[in-house]
Amino acid sequence: MELRKPQLYSRGDAFVVLPGGLGTLEEMAEVLSLAGLGLQKLVVLVNMNGFYDALCAHMDLMIRECMMTEDIRSALKVVPDIATALQVLLAHKPGDISVNKASLWDSNKHE
Question: Going residue by residue through the chain (111 aa), what tens digit of pLDDT does each one get?
Fold first, then answer.
């Protein structure tokens, strides 16, 4: 895994996170952590049937407690299903994450 992750990151313009286990969370956290270093890429979190509601709430807590910055989560787009994820990916312009910043996160509602 450690050998393939740098290649995946360097080759990918955006990342889609489907419901999964610890490996999925670890890879998502790594991509979001790189956003904190200025290597920001779009991450689409597919929150099917509320699977990631608790994670989204925890990220809100991390921000309130100053354990995570708004800049890091600006790379995250929470969507309810794969069809919406596809729409986000098709609208995304690689290298210009700012085109999506206004709608990336609504801390009052996790789709």
Answer: 677 777 777 788 889 999 999 999 998 998 888 876 776 788 999 999 999 999 999 999 999 999 988 877 777 899 999 999 999 999 987 765 543 333 334 444 444
Looking at residue 69, its amino acid is T
What is the domain-level CATH number for residue 29?
3.40.50.450
Could you write out the DSSP letters of every residue in the chain? -TTHHHHHHHH-SEEEE-S--HHHHHHHHHHHHHHTTT---EEEEE-GGGTTHHHHHHHHHHHHTTSS-HHHHTTEEEESSHHHHHHHHHH--TT-GGGGGGGS--TT---
Range of the domain at 58: 4-100
